[in-house]
Every structure is written in C-alpha cells, then in structure tokens.
Amino acid sequence: MRAQLGKYFLAAGTALWLAAPALAGTTLTVANWLPPSHPLVSEVIVPMTQKIAEATHGEVTATILPAPLGPPGAHFDFAVNGVADITFGVQGYNPGRFKTTNVVELPFLGESAEAISVAYWHVWEKYLKQAGEYDRVKVLAVFSHGPGEVFLKGGDISGPDALRGRKIRVGGGIVHEIVGALGAVPVEGPSSKAYELLSQGVADGITFPYESVAYFKLIPQLSEAIAVPGGLFNTSFYIVMNKAKWDSLTPEQQSQIDSVTGEALARMAGQMWDRADAKGRAEMEGKIAITPASAAQMAAWKAALQPLVDAKLAEAASAGVDAQAAHAALLSEIGQ
Fold first, then answer.
1. Comparing C-alpha atoms, which of 180, 175, 213 is closest to residue 92?
2. What CA–CA distance (Å, rounded) separates 38 from 51?
3. What strand order describes the sheet that includes 289-292?
4. CB–CB of 138/240 below 8 Å?
C-alpha cells in the first residue's frame, strides 16, 4: 500500500511540474514607438493584446512596453533578435529590405483601407510570402493605411502641372519617387517634423492620408487638397512576433492566436484607418478646400507614373514572386 501511495504522489507531482509552465502562463512584450493616443496603438495594438488574452483563455497575455526601445526603423530587428516579443512598424523605414511591399504602395489602389488591407493579407499569403522577407519572424499582420492625398499651402491646383516645382514633404520610399515623377520637389522628413517643415516654409505641401493631417495638427498650415481617386500612394505596415517565442507556444495557443490575427487583425487595422480618415476629413471642413482630381490630371498623372509602377513591380519580382499576378489579384479583390 505504501509503495502504491508513493507511486501515486510521484506521478501526481510529475504531472503538476509538467503543467506548471502552462499554469503560470506566458507574457509577451510588445514594443511601441508611437504615443499611446495614436489610433494605431489605442485601436489596434491594445485591442490585439486583449484578443490574444481572450483567445488563449488568459494563458498568453501581452504587455505594451511603456517607453520606446529605439527608433521606428529598428523595430523589425527587435522582433528578429528577441529584444521584444511583438513589434510593429513601417517596412519603408528599412529601405531596400522589403521589395514585396511595392505591390501595395502603388498609386490608385482604392478608397478603403479595410478593403486594401484585407486584400493585401490575402495576396501576401498567396504570392508575397514566398519571397522569404519575413522568414525570421512570425507575421501577425500586414496592412495599409488609407489613400494618400496631396495637401498644399495655396496656389493653383487645377491642372496636370499643379505639383510642378512645389516643395512637397514626403516620408521617403515610393512616395518620394511619385511626387518627383509629377514634377514636385520632394522634401524628406519624419512625420514628427511635418509641422516645422510647413510652418518654416521648407515645404509648401505634404502627402498624407486625411488622418495624419489632423493628428499632426497641420490643418492651420494648409489650405488646399487634391483628392486623388484611389489615392496617390499607400503605406505598408507590419505586426510581427519573435520566431523563438512563437515556437515556444503550444500548437493550441498558436492556433488560438492565429484566429485573432492574420486577416482579422489586418481588417481591424484597416477599419481603424478608415475611421481615422473620416474623422480627419471632417475636421478639415471649412478649413481646407478639398477638390477631386480632374480627368485631365488623372490622365496625365497615370501616364507619368506608369513607368514607376512598372519599375516597382519589376523590383518586387526580383524578390522571386509573380509581382504582376499579385498586383492584379490585389486590384481585383479591392474592386470587389
């Protein structure tokens, strides 16, 4: 009897020891470089952490770090190297590293960030993932903000040459090349410096989605906007997780997290940008005159930008993907 009890307690103790990690739970660290009030944080990253906890029944929780670990461009490598478990950012902050993002950053894609983002996720899974650009992390989502427009400090905006010679603040990447191809003078600078560049006359216009003009308090610095059907550009974002941390989770936990990330997370991000753009545009009423691009402008701009579109798709294809098919699939799904 004593021997049997001994075996029972030994087995029970072993079972408790094996269960201890699961009972203790896993806490993920989430790096953040934006103000907590920014909608990408308050309406996407915070709800994402809540959904992860709910989906895993509290076994996996995520804590957003209170201070930035470094500049925005460093955040992808923070996930690669395990400095943080989850990070997010803009692929364009790492020039030359992500060629496949060209597919979603091209002009004239669509009016809805939600539609673009969900289509982007599907196209990334089917066509772009094979490029291997994200092989060192677990991708939780890729998505896009709303259509980028042009905002100016006065001047004639009616003709195809409306941007020629104008100094336009850009964030770098493809939008630099877009405004250059339309005859403008690109002035690169981070979003945080946009007010300074406009107020000091270093730039006399800016390319931004409606949300950003309002968020960075630029409305008093601008008077005109050209609303480009489908947008003049888009910006690609990522949310990724450290590969080793992902692999440390149980298959069930991974499946649970997959259920609230991927397409679901891309959709949530797109919906956030659409709400933010609508709010930003509403704040401009009576302060910035928003004029739709004319048929003549669109014809001239599409012709001027076609060589750039071709070059960017060729660059994406150099990563080993069928970029033309990916772009066609993206446009087709957005159009639906």
1. 175
2. 19
3. 185-188, 167-170, 205-208, 149-152, 224-227, 289-292
4. yes
Q: Give the CA distances from residue 54 to residues 29, 49, 196, 201, 299, in Å, rounded to whole numbers and listed in that order.
A: 17, 9, 43, 49, 50
Considering the entire predicted model, what is its pTM? Answer: 0.89
- Taking the C-alpha atoms of residue 211 and residue 197, their distance in angstroms, rounded to an integer, is 18
Q: Which residues contact 223 (CB under 8 A, 6 or more apart)?
A: 152, 153, 154, 288, 289
Distances (CA, A) of 162 to 129, 159, 297: 38, 5, 9
Q: What ranges in the chain are assigned the alpha helix state H?
A: 2-24, 39-40, 46-55, 75-81, 102-105, 113-123, 174-181, 194-199, 210-215, 243-248, 251-258, 263-284, 295-317, 323-335
Instruction: Please name each of the domains of the chain with its CATH number.
Output: 2-90+121-144+236-276 (3.40.190.170), 149-233+286-335 (3.40.190.170)
Helices 46-55 and 263-284: crossing angle in degrees, nearest 10, is 150
- Tell me the DSSP string of 245-284: HHHHS-HHHHHHHHTTSTHHHHHHHHHHHHHHHHHHHHHH
pLDDT tens-digit readout, 71-119: 999 999 999 999 999 999 999 889 889 999 999 999 999 999 999 999 9
Closest CA relative to residue 107, chosen from 143, 149, 45:
149
Q: Tell the residue number behind the tokens 């029972």, with chain if given.
A: 8
DSSP letter string over 4-60? HHHHHHHHHHHHHHHHHHHHH-EEEEE---S-TTSHHIIIIIHHHHHHHHHHTTTSE
Which letter does DSSP use for residue 148 in this model?
B
pLDDT tens for residues 320-333? 999 999 999 999 99
